[in-house]
Amino acid sequence: MSARNKSGNKQDDRSVETLAEVFRCFICMEKLRDAHLCPHCSKLCCYICIRRWLTEQRSQCPHCRASLHLHELVNCRWVEEVTQQLDSLQAVSGTRCEDNERDKCSTHMEKLSVYCWTCRCCICHQCALWGGTHSGHTFKPLEEVYEQHVTQIKDEVAQLRRRLMELISIVQEVERNVESVRSAKDDRVREIRNAVELMIARLDSQLKTKLLTLMGQKDSLTQVCIFLWTSTMFDVSH
């Protein structure tokens, strides 16, 4: 394998690893499980990690320190799909590293430089020319096949990145919607509170009016009773 190919391999591996770091829980630093997102800083974390933090530590995001409660977390089901794709890419990278360590023919101890399309395996040039078991098979240079796989992986990584940008855009839209809902809720609560306060004020006013009326009626009845009692006492005395 040429120096250019080795450099390309390392760069591709680093790209996959860098992308994988984005999908690690920022609390436990492990692969995301039941991923949830902080609506304030958009950081991803395991639900069990953030739940434990919010219930046992304090009600704020451990990354951005903004006030945070469990019901405010955004459930990111799409992360599982992305992490599965990353696992596949990392598996390909790991397999490629192992292949580099075992890139010699077990029969001839020659470097594996030919790909047998018929058998779907890597062989050395001696196997292709004189091995016997590959007579009449179709061959391609291993480097050419490798380049095809690298191109395919790059395309898949590019698709993942585009998907990631789309998902980030969706998350941002969700954040805007959440903020809009919160604002609408606050406005509605304010309207209800004002209506209740106005109703209480009206009831208080009506109550005062009725109390004044009743007190006036009481005074009138009291005066009538006093008058009747006085009249009765006067009649008895005469």
Structure write-up:
- The structure is a single chain.
- This protein has 238 residues and is mainly alpha-helical.
- The protein contains 5 helices and 6 strands, in the order H-E-E-H-E-H-E-E-H-E-H.
- The strands form 2 sheets. Strands 2-1-3 form a 3-stranded antiparallel β-sheet. A 3-stranded antiparallel β-sheet has the order 5-4-6.
- A hairpin with a 4-residue loop joins strand 4 and strand 5.
- The relative contact order is 0.08.
User: What's the total number of strands?
Assistant: 6
Return the string of H and E elements: HEEHEHEEHEH
Shape: rod-shaped
Radius of gyration: 40 Å
Which structural traits does this protein have?
238 residues; mainly alpha; 3-stranded antiparallel beta sheet; 5 helices
Present the secondary structure layout:
Blueprint: H1 3-22, E1 35-37, E2 44-46, H2 47-56, E3 74-75, H3 78-101, E4 114-116, E5 121-123, H4 125-130, E6 139-141, H5 142-237
Antiparallel strand pairs: 1-2, 1-3, 4-5, 4-6
Short overview:
By secondary structure, the protein is mainly α. The chain has helices at 3-22, 47-56, 78-101, 125-130, 142-237, and strands spanning 35-37, 44-46, 74-75, 114-116, 121-123, 139-141. The protein starts with a helix and ends with a helix.
